[in-house]
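OP here, attaching both records as promised.
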Amino acid sequence: MSKTPVLDSIHSHEDIRSLDLARLKTLAQEVRSETIDAVSVTGGHLGAGLGVVELTVALHHIFNTPYDRVIWDVGHQAYPHKILTGRRDRIRTLRQPGGLSGFTKRSESEYDPFGAGHSSTSISAGLGMQVAAELRGEERNVVAVIGDGAMSAGMAYEAMNNAGALDSRLIVILNDNDMSIAPPTGAMSAYLARLISGKTFLSLRDVAKQLAHQLPRFFKEKAQKAEEFARSFVTGGTLFEELGFYYVGPIDGHNLDHLLPILKNVRDIDKGPILVHVVTQKGKGYPPAEHASDKYHGVSRFDVMTGTQLKPPSNAPTYTKVFGESLLREGRKDDKIVAVTAAMPSGTGVDLFQKEFPDRTFDVGIAEQHAVTFAAGLACEGFKPFCAIYSTFLQRAYDQVVHDVAIQNLPVRFPIDRAGFVGADGPTHAGAFDIGFLSSLPNMVVMAAADEAELVHMVATARAHDDGPIAFRYPRGEGVGTDLPDDGVPLEIGKGRIVRQGSKVAILSLGTRLAESLAAAERLDSYGLSTTVADARFAKPLDRGMILKLAGTHEMLITIEEGAVGGFGSQVLHLLAAEGMLDGHLKIRTLAMQDRYCEQGKPDDIYAQNGLDADGIIAAVLEALGKDLNAAMEAGELA
């Protein structure tokens, strides 16, 4: 008779806290298997979660969650956490429409005290929660779990510096799964970490510090240096100590025999802030992930037995690959071209350039602010930096774009990947706002590629443009299958193109909604509404001549873009208002993302829900013309 799985008995955090060590180890094995099986169905971020299974079990066993706050930085590693906190029955809806978020989300569970998506926010949020608890007189543990990659961002150190100055009792767990700040050395390392996290060692250390303060200055300095040297020799934690943290570690993050007593010590001591250095392995326990170069960071659906990802076959290249190949071609022509990425060389396509030109490629880590100003410095010295950052992550560096690039009119090139809706990653990763926040800047040129061929030309345009900053945006995923040119040809700045000529309705498209605009035009023509389609190409500067001509020669003008309200459509309205063309003669509609944060789902479905497909365009045209399609056709008003 088979035993009931331990995981089946977990209905609340009290169930986890009641388990003995042997059953906790079994629980960890079962959670790992459940995570693998769930992600094989949904796709998502697998490697990071597998690396923190034991840590997740230990945290929920030792700490009184959700009263005690556990904040997962980024959220990629939070799948095991979700399985253990009442969401196991929905875990196979991860990243699906109406399902669980791929990240932590406050509205989803009381066990998610802070929403995540962008990295390096956990320590700042945790410090705010800890200070709030202290202001209310509550004895609450706050634990921020942050990966070593996220520790490359300046925000993490800003928060640690503040925490050290406040001396708040914040617990930070550094999940070291890549850069191996220091390797754990088995039983001795665990013993030392357990020793220095205990009350006895802390008491002795405090006594030593008090004694040192009573000594003459020379002896006091020598005593402090000796104490610091001794601790750094044992633990390697000097950097964190200098920021005001008490350092514990390194600890094997997959060994519950080591983790549990150390976390218990950290929980029970009245000391803070504390940093616990835990060493883990991405993809732990699943050989295909352990052996993959990216440790299965992000995967599509896959076969559990083989690890083979089940991607549908396609001949169309992704926009990211088209950009990467175009940048490489341009780089071969011009040795002043350099590539800058913020920890996303493969995600942005920069890895293709990096393989051939490693000395001209700079991965600065998860540090978008630094990436932008670093690129500005390169531009000052005559280089041509392509600073490739996802739309959603460029938001993190907006001040640097304004202050360090645009005001100084420096020719930094910004390839903006993941523009528009991104599907399963949801609102934290949607590229919604870049058109608006870049188009408002003087000196900035903003382009949007209508298809893969246009993207090739825009890379060439960016290389040739040396009069100031220039940005070009393109979406995630595959293109429309357009034939690619052998080489890019620079576009004339601020000039769009007429793709299809009509007489009554004008559709002005920015970006890859051009294909849907053409499909809508075909159907509108069949209804007797002769339709022009134009590709704006530029959100800034606008093609004034083309837009004013469209407005003056058509009964209706409709703009469409893959961005938030306040972007391209607003720029067009501003132009038409300034030219006195909003006097009632022209019917105009601006189609953009709805004024709300999008939920996860398939991109095509989300575009349809936002009225940004052919059906949505047609509905907007008929509404503006005061026509109901069926009624108008029955009355003979439409063909």
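Record two, same layout:
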Amino acid sequence: MTRSKPYAQGALDGLCGPYAIVNALMHIGHRGDPADLFQTACSAVSSRRWPALLWEGTWFGDLKKMLAACMREFDAQIDVQVSYPFWRTAPANNNGYWAEFDEIFDDEDVLCGIVGITRPSDHWLVIARDGGRIVFYDSEPLKPMKRVNRKSLYAGVRGPKTKKWVIDRRELVVFRRMD
């Protein structure tokens, strides 16, 4: 008998979007049941997208709808503003992305974000900055937190083969504390 590695979330389904929303909101201090957040997020997507969403995954538009529903339902618990700084006008290149990213995340009221990646696979991750490094909080149960050197990241459509991670420049969600 051959032993195989267990499947993790995302290996067989496309639900990393709702998981990223739950992880981000729990990271910034949501005190409720994560299952309630997950259900709210999933319920916000059009019934026409089900069940195909399970294997096709969520697009940025889906993510925005899910976040809006979660924020409406739980905004009394969390005083946070959600923004999509690059959706309409993305930085022109990798260097521009990181310059604008740093400007955003230099604000001490910015708590975390969600990014869409295209390499190593299409996936949604919660992101934060730790000095010069990037921290990914993932729904992957075997390694839920990864500290990544920025040199292994590229923001763009396709990155050089030397880059392990490719981030879609347009797909950044920012969670900012409102006091």
